[in-house]
Design goal:
222 residues, mainly beta, five-stranded antiparallel beta sheet, four-stranded antiparallel beta sheet, 19 strands, 0% helix
Length: 222
């Protein structure tokens, strides 16, 4: 309840451009986050207290997506590698050397019991793919969609439609990320695919609670 309040603001004098990827440390009122700087590929891991708003530096480096694991480790992505390091959430210090679990990873998550789920694919997931239903018994059933570079599917609340980002695998920028792409809507009952956005690169869709609207990010000029 209540309006949102800023927790941190980038320090422009130190060359900070953004604070992102926040994650709570369990049983604390401390949030870890990644700070990016104006220098290319320069990042650092920092922590902020919800009570004092004090920001502490945890470690420099280019790692992203910090996640504390119940085993007492901090997991991060570093150069496409999933790395875990012993970590003390009270002192905010690493207590041992890092260990690489997997390579060529672009996203991951841990359950409270320590079970790992990760996506093993090239950076930005630029590759032809298909959309499938994955059942609890492990069976996979593909949907009747043409192969393309799909990403970030979101199912409507009534289970009848899927909005998904579709990129052009042949159009990539200097970093290898899709340079263009838009949102498409798949009607599961009718088995039809229709384009939603036309005038700007659009991604990261979510449905409104009543299923009548789609909210998404776009680089459309103001």
């Amino acid at each position: 309840g209540g309006p949102p309040q800023p927790l941190t603001l980038p320090d422009e004098k130190r060359g900070e451009t953004s604070h992102r990827q926040p994650t709570f440390l369990p049983q604390t009122r401390t949030v870890l986050f990644v700070t990016e700087y104006s220098a290319p590929d320069e990042r650092s891991l920092q922590a902020v207290s919800l009570d004092t708003k004090e920001i502490r530096s945890v470690s420099p480096g280019g790692a992203v997506l910090p996640r504390y694991v119940p085993t007492g480790h901090l997991a991060q992505l570093n150069d496409g590698k999933l790395v875990v390091t012993p970590f003390d959430p009270t002192t905010l210090r690493f207590t041992g050397p890092p260990v690489t679990l997997f390579e060529d990873v672009n996203s991951f998550s841990f359950s409270n019991e320590g079970t790992l789920v990760y996506s093993e694919s090239p950076a930005y997931n630029v590759r032809t793919s298909t959309l499938v239903w994955a059942n609890r018994d492990g069976s996979v059933n593909p949907l009747p969609l043409p192969p393309a570079v799909y990403d970030h599917p979101r199912l409507s609340a009534d289970g009848r439609k899927i909005v998904i980002h579709r990129a052009d695998a042949k159009a990539v920028d200097g970093a290898g990320a899709p340079a263009s792409g838009g949102l498409w809507l798949y009607d599961i009952t009718r088995e039809t695919l229709s384009k939603v956005t036309y005038d700007a690169a659009s991604d990261w869709p979510i449905w409104s609670a009543d299923g009548t609207k789609i909210i998404y990010g776009a680089n459309r000029p103001r």
